[in-house]
Amino acid sequence: MTEVHSIQQNSALSSGKVLGPYVQIAEIEVPPGVWEIPASSEVSLGLALSDLSATWFESATLRNGTVAAGNTSICRVEEFRKFEMKSDAKFALFSLQPEAFTQGEGNSSLGIQPSDLLEDSSLRALLSVLLSEQQSRFESGLLFLDSMTITLAEYLKSRYSSMALQARSHKGGLARSALRRCIDYVDAHIDHDLRLEDLVRESGVSASHLIRSFRTSTGKTPYQFVLERRVDRAKGLMRDSRLGLTEIALATGFANQHHLSRVFRKTAGITPSQFRLALG
What we know:
elongated; Jelly Rolls; 6-stranded antiparallel sheet
């Protein structure tokens, strides 16, 4: 009798990173054999990180083939799956929490259609960015991670939802009072690893609405705005020659001096050291 192994999706994901209210990510490696994936109530996606050969059922049809690294899949919600891996396999699993879809918009995650094999370059790019962020220990910050996850959820709804969702028009920006609360919160917590949910709470609108309307009001996404705010604060601190760049980086919410230098150069066009020299 063939031994059957279980990929406990929730436990596998919890062995990776629990990333706040929107997404969980795990990298998984399995040897050849029969593997079961239990049913899950969450929208989950897979990204093949290696070429692999497997047999599986798709819509009651037995499939047998090779999956290329970079192929993506949208897992079936509330459906038990079984795969027979013919070779070693490495893949990443992304579990989107309901909050990524439902903030102020109803339970729209239920309309996402499953697909076992997708060659969608946009979906692959979004998943690769999220995986890269985990591998770099979220150097770009949790606000970037949250924003990318909401972007992924919006992409899934627009491209793979079976529900006839009418596109909502958000031509206007944030209400002035809501925008002011968001900016004040950013300024008061600039040394923290800000989350999108913090600005959602301050603004009183959904995450997807916040990203769109914030950009309409400021010309920048919340993540871009926060980065520029961090750089501006760093410029002010650099006028004090007693402060080292590592100290300034941590005081302005950057992960480390390297992160500060990379963002500073991209934003200001010069390095922090060059900026300090220019101050005289």
